[in-house]
């Protein structure tokens, strides 16, 4: 007989009954007379402070949610994840992104093999490459030092490195040969076309990042880059001995779990970086996929990023559930999605360096937990991942905050900001102005979460107001404060959300480490591409797709 699903268990049923009482409770009521609510619902770890006091819950709610986590065996699941058990059940393998940030003196034996030496062997190979670039010793086919590196990847091979390099741009190493890092992910070639128009082929190198080395988006861009380099370098420099093999060797690095396919493509063996089948793409920035990060900030700062993530891993492993930041953040999400029926979630950083953090989390959360089938193949009878989106908070205030304040859609929000910034600015007058601007951003961050919580009660009573100037409040939010935005605190912040996703998946009884919906889209797109290119029979297509394909053929005939 199949085991009961999570929504049939005692803790879930108790929460459902409790939620019926709480739905009519306004956040302003929860704060009324509660002088120490902030302290009661705030936790700190690994350079982060998590304030959950603006969630629509009280002590009893959290206790019942912790009961749910225990009933779902979350502590056992955490141990299994970090020990290398096969938590990715549909693909029958472990999910060991946390192994990528273990220190060299650690040991993690999984199925008879200690993974740490191979992880650090790849990190050392990365370090050697980065040192060559920063010393100006990595030279193109014509002998000129490489200055521009273009990362060709998509999904986790793009979003993670893009987000982190932007966030840590202040941490470029001084006194080294400057490397500019660029990212091209779109399969239509629009990003790449811009780079090819501006960059010098003699000083440009491409990093092909693809776990399978079969991703059509990445390989399409790679073939275009290859043709550009061959045409521009070999045509003008044949007398100097520039040939195809030299171009491939000096202008391409491959990052993949498939060395055979990198070899077939022509990537020189000593210019290949490995990652493993037990690392999902959206969890992969901690290893070789992070090469663009290391090129931008240097290996010491890259290692600090890993150390910050490892600090959060240790906290996740060791802290009791009631003080465990990833667990608490996950439970807040479970409460909102499953019991308060809040199925939208917005990520709102108040620091321009975190411009791409919301986009990164969109993939991390929705690709991981956008599932509707349990581990044993049954359809779920409850909501899983909410629709997640976001933008820099100061910009969003002039865009979709109108919906947050006065729309009909309930939305959970995460406000994220560093406590301190601009201490390193040397000029005292400029430093004072920039610090003032940072305080302005913090003031807006705190004010917006307060108004979303209290609504009209946050406004001084100035008499009756018309309906279009009324604000209901009662929108729940979490606030995450970083001591400073550093490689270490960014690492712990990313790891916090990774582990939050895992805890929620455990409670929902779904697999956060596969993405069969993505794979289906790739397969059907490949079939459709072949029809478009070869004008194959489209009789079996649906009427809409058939009409769209015919429109393309007609446009090409008339062009």
UniProtKB/TrEMBL annotation:
Matching entries from PROSITE patterns are given as: P_GLUCOSE_ISOMERASE_1 (PS00765), P_GLUCOSE_ISOMERASE_2 (PS00174), P_GLUCOSE_ISOMERASE_3 (PS51463)
Quote the Pfam families the UniProt record gives. Answer: PGI
- Role played: Catalyzes the reversible isomerization of glucose-6-phosphate to fructose-6-phosphate.
The EC number on file is 5.3.1.9
Recorded hits in CDD domains, A to Z, give: SIS_PGI_1, SIS_PGI_2
Name the protein family: Belongs to the GPI family.
Which SUPFAM superfamilies does the record cross-reference, listed alphabetically? SIS domain (SSF53697)
Q: Name the reaction it catalyses.
A: alpha-D-glucose 6-phosphate = beta-D-fructose 6-phosphate
Its localization reads: Cytoplasm
- What is the protein named? Glucose-6-phosphate isomerase
**Active site per the UniProt annotation:** 367, 398, 522
Recorded hits in InterPro entries, A to Z, give: G6P_Isomerase, G6P_Isomerase_C, Phosphoglucose_isomerase_CS, SIS_dom_sf, SIS_PGI_1, SIS_PGI_2
Main EC class of this protein? isomerase
Record GO biological process: gluconeogenesis; glucose 6-phosphate metabolic process; glycolytic process
